[in-house]
Automatic annotation (TrEMBL):
Residues that coordinate or bind NAD(+): 11-17, 42, 105, 112, 129-131
Name of a matching Pfam family: Ldh_1_N
InterPro entries tied to this protein: L-lactate/malate_DH, Lactate/malate_DH_C, Lactate/malate_DH_N, Lactate_DH/Glyco_Ohase_4_C, Malate_DH_type2, NAD(P)-bd_dom_sf
Official protein name in the record: Malate dehydrogenase
Alphabetical keyword list: NAD, Oxidoreductase, Tricarboxylic acid cycle
CDD domains the record matches: MDH_chloroplast-like
């Protein structure tokens, strides 16, 4: 029997938490032979709900779930964590401007970065889901100077999955056959869903499109606006699909992505594709044995380059608003 892995989930009493925890405890993320300990963090006013969630986790009698710890103290929740999923964030309230949201969440992620630095396992893998995810991940990373920056990531997997689903539906092909999708940039409206390298059973998706304008006129805006469409339909933001993406992101990072394929992760740039070093940016990555590598030397069109630089510039603006926290 393997030793249990401590997994911290913040915002665990929220709606993504409610979909995410049961998937993790079932073994969907780390495999069906990996025992786990869940360390759940939420605000003091959410502790009663969190107790209810803990009772439900217990009532599932998951064979892999060794222990559930709940707390409103990050020092307890992040203690010895090997995996940290930072979901909890302040939602945008009425009248709140984007810069106020950046500031409010920036404070949360600077504190959590410092505490990760202090008490988490040195090899902790961090996934930031709470928005604005890329900038929050940058703040957490900068506040954790003793941890390897490569252990910080932000979630673009939901955008990646949305892009795959759009192509599969449009071409009447099975989702599992759509490989090598990419969503570059920021997890925001400036992201650049790029199907130019995608393949279906080895055939370039571009060659299968009946109408070449579909990518620019429909695919890109649909993927960019999908989150807003879900909010309009549900009255709430994506939760089960976000949890599913978080499980997939961490699964592939820890256990490896499928052979001959890549996935999108927001990770600190190494200077690839003219994105300056250190910017947390959505890239295609190959994962192997707990490490990722940015896929190199892909040809990028002029239009693609413009989209990529627009998203980078937005990240620079976000960074400017929170520079006192870095
Ligand atoms: P929610 O509002 O249902 O839950 C958030 C939870 O976080 C609440 O229980 C709240 O009490 C908690 N929280 C707030 N501040 C905290 C702190 N300092 N420490 C610990 N817990 C804290 O929100 P939901 O729907 O679960 O979404 C969570 C975040 O994920 C939001 O920021 C949302 O925008 C983001 N998101 C990101 C996606 C992505 O693709 N990167 C996709 C969907 C959502």
């Amino acid at each position: 029997m393997k030793a249990p892995i401590r997994i911290t989930v913040t915002g665990a009493a929220g709606q993504i938490g409610y979909s995410l925890l049961f998937r993790i405890a079932n073994g969907d993320m780390l495999g069906d032979d990996q025992p786990i300990i869940l360390q759940l963090l939420d605000l003091p006013q959410a502790q009663q709900v969190l107790r209810g969630v803990m009772m439900e986790l217990e009532d599932c009698a998951f064979p892999l779930l060794q222990q559930v710890i709940i707390s409103d103290d990050p020092k307890i929740a992040f203690k010895d964590a090997e995996i940290a999923m930072l979901v909890g964030a302040r939602p945008r309230s009425k009248g709140m401007e984007r810069k106020d949201l950046l500031e409010a969440n920036g404070v949360i992620f600077s504190v959590q970065g410092r505490i990760l630095n202090e008490v988490a396992a040195r090899h902790v893998k961090v996934l930031v889901v709470g928005n604005p995810a890329n900038t929050n991940a940058l703040i957490a990373m900068k506040n954790a100077p003793d941890l390897d920056p490569r252990n910080f990531s932000a979630m673009m997997r939901l955008d990646h999955n949305r892009a795959i689903a759009q192509v599969a539906q449009h071409l009447f092909q099975p989702v599992r056959d759509v490989k090598r999708m990419i969503v570059w940039g920021n997890h925001s409206g400036t992201q650049y869903p790029d199907l130019n390298h995608a393949q279906i059973r080895g055939i370039p998706v571009r060659d299968l499109l009946p109408d070449q304008n579909w990518a620019e006129n429909e695919f890109i805006p649909t993927v960019q606006k999908r989150g807003t469409m879900v909010i309009e339909a549900r009255g709430l933001s994506s939760a089960a699909s976000a949890a599913n993406a978080a499980v997939a992101h961490m699964h592939d990072w820890v256990l490896g992505a499928h052979h001959n394929n890549w996935v999108t992760m927001s990770v600190p740039s190494d200077g690839s594709y003219d994105i300056p070093e250190g910017v947390i940016y959505g890239f295609p990555v190959r994962c192997n044995q707990g490490r990722y590598q940015i896929v190199q030397n892909l040809a990028i069109s002029e239009l693609g380059r413009r989209h990529m630089q627009d998203s980078y510039r937005e990240l620079l603006e976000e960074r400017e608003h929170v520079k006192h926290l870095l």
